[in-house]
Amino acid sequence: MNKKVSLLLILLLWLLAGCDLASNFTQAPPEETTPNPVVNGTAVATGTPAPDTTPDIAIPGTPVTQTRPTLRVWLPPEIALATEDGAAVLNAQLAAYRSNHPDIDLIVEQKAVSGQSGILNYLRTGRAVAPEILPDLIAIPTDQLSLALTEELIYPMGNLVATSQLEALYPAALNLVLKNNQVGGYPFVLTGLSHLAYNTEVVTATIPARWDNFIAQPNSLVFPANGLPGGTLGLQFYLAAGGSLTNEAGQTALQVEPLATALQQLFLAESSGFILDQSSNYSTFQESWQLFQAGSASVTLTNSEQFLRLRDENGRYQVTSVPGLERPLTPLVSGWAWAISSSDPAKQILAADLLNTLIADSNLGEWTYASNYLPSQETALNFWAQDDPYLPFVREQLNRASAMPFSGSSSIMTVLNNAVFDVITLTKTPQVAAEEAVAALQQ
Questions:
Q1: Roughly what angle, to the nearest 10 degrees, separates helices 411-424 and 228-240?
Q2: What is the spatial distance between Cα 179 and Cα 340, in angstroms, rounded to a whole number?
Q3: Are 341 and 138 in contact (CB under 8 A)?
Q4: Going from the N-terminus, what domains does the chain have, and what CATH number goes with each?
Q5: Which of 412, 240, 222, 430 is nearest to 332 (CA)?
Q6: Count of Cβ atoms closer than 10 Å to residue 53 Cβ
Q7: Cα–Cα distance between 410 and 40 in angstroms, integer?
């Protein structure tokens, strides 16, 4: 009886996985006319995947046999289908790997990154009933690494990635994957790099490095003050004001005075009319970009994924750092990482071999450029179009960036989101909003 139940569970899991993957490959997103939605609080680049390129991602080059090792990879659509060009580049790289490794059956499948059908949830439920169909290598957001390591859904990189590859990472990228003195995964994409975009037909003077000088200019700013981008901006100002993120006991905490200083910057900009009132209505970069694009604001807060996707081909929109208290604010970045999800040492070696192929400078550079993502390695930028005007800015910003210390769904970000919203709507003074935020986090 137990054997029959086990067989039934295995069959059911196979059918569910098959249905899920079939849905992924047959439902292509509509052609993009406006920016795409934010996933888990982080703006991600998506595009218009080419219907004739997606099947290549899932189908191995030769029929699967039982005499050759099988390497299974699970990718979320944010990576597999970031853009039409990105999907084509990834398919070409996977095809080359299959050609160079005819002794391996490589199967690459799509899975959602979160939810009941998400990668980690499948790993939790599948190991007991059908471990043979689970992946050996996965791509997940870096803020999922800690939980996945704790639950032993993934395994530390150890010596599977060369030290030189780790040294090639931007400092922020490496910090995203260091978990309890272990490398939990290999970051290959950096996301969420925020900066300003401005209309050069309206803004003719240089944007200052100091916030007080910036808001004194005859410009107007729109940004999503009712969501994660607003809270992240508040966090950047808080850190610039010398704020700490933990208390003496090592618990996540905020300090009143640095937070009040941070919120005061936004309060002054709003009360002077520099920040558009509509900012309090927006929770995503997509919404505020539309107002900027319509000409209602001369400057907007954006991020790298959105700007790469929507920048004006004629160069009308230019970029600059977000002004700060004394100098430009430090960018905070999140990312995506490759992670080893097999406990089998032999499978781990196979997975690491493919991983190292995909993170090679040329492969990573070509794919990130085609996918509108920023690479985790500076050397990968050598394979971007060298005449791209965004490239020098990206190089400088990524070297300055720090790792985003919290996930978008964390309690501290919720508290900061609310505090920024309160001062932008002028319903609370910066001091009151700061005091209430600190108290809320202690509850």
A1: 90
A2: 15
A3: yes
A4: 41-191+335-392 (3.40.190.10), 194-330+409-442 (3.40.190.10)
A5: 240
A6: 19
A7: 11
pLDDT (tens, 9 = 90+) of the chain, 443 residues, equals 444 444 444 444 444 444 443 333 333 333 333 334 333 333 433 333 333 444 345 444 444 545 789 999 999 999 999 999 999 999 999 999 999 999 999 999 999 999 888 999 999 998 888 888 999 999 999 999 999 999 999 999 999 999 999 999 999 999 999 988 899 999 999 999 999 999 999 999 999 999 999 999 999 999 999 999 999 999 999 999 999 999 999 999 999 999 999 999 999 999 999 999 999 999 999 999 999 999 999 999 999 999 999 998 888 999 999 999 999 999 999 999 999 999 999 999 999 999 999 999 999 999 999 999 999 999 999 999 999 999 999 999 999 999 999 999 999 999 999 999 999 999 999 999 999 999 999 98
How far lies 105's CA from each of 54, 139, 339, 344, in Å?
18, 19, 19, 16
Signed CA dihedral, 129, 135, 140, 144: sign only: positive
Short-list 223, 229, 227, CA closest to 297: 223
| pTM for this predicted structure | 0.85
Spatial contact of 143 and 407, defined as CB atoms under 8 Å apart: yes
Tokens (6 digits) for 132: 């043979």
